[in-house]
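Query structure, 173 tokens:
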């Protein structure tokens, strides 16, 4: 399969994988799942979905494309871009247009667009030259971002992006 076709499949695969990861904590609420999966509907907690789904997809891509050398690095960078795009696009729409009332269709459209843009970047990064340290940096990066997200679940900042308006709580609550 060509890389272009794989990237198109990746957009849908990451989107579906994200939908699955969204409910892991709901299905198995415990300390471990609270560290890796969203515990509430705050904007920030959804970064766990993005990072997790991109990490899983990058590992699958690494297995599928054994000859590609910077797969994890491309996945890490594109996951950060996707998370940033979701935060930058969704946050003002959520607060100014939707008035803190979630609209699933708007959410899905923004998320799908962010995934598509980030997978285009991923495609460009996969065609760049390889530096053997990039894969190590990606592993450290995925681990670091996951630890940060886990920490902020239990010690959220007093900002609107950490607030779950449905439950009226910050972080784990």
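Result returned for the query:
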């Amino acid at each position: 399969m060509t890389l272009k076709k794989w990237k198109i499949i990746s957009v849908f695969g990451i989107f579906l994988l994200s939908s699955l990861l969204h409910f892991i904590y709901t299905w198995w609420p415990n300390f471990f799942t609270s560290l890796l999966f969203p515990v509430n509907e705050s904007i920030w907690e959804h970064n766990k979905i993005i990072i997790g789904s991109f990490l899983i997809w990058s590992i699958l891509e690494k297995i599928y494309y054994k000859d590609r050398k910077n797969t994890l690095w491309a996945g890490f960078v594109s996951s950060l871009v996707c998370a940033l795009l979701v935060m930058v696009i969704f946050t003002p729409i959520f607060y100014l247009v939707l008035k803190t009332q979630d609209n699933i269709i708007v959410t899905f459209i923004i998320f799908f667009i962010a995934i598509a843009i980030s997978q285009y970047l991923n495609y460009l990064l996969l065609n760049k030259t390889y530096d053997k340290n990039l894969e190590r940096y990606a592993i450290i990066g995925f681990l670091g971002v996951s630890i940060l997200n886990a920490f902020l679940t239990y010690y959220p900042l007093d900002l609107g992006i950490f607030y779950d308006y449905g439950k009226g709580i910050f972080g784990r609550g």
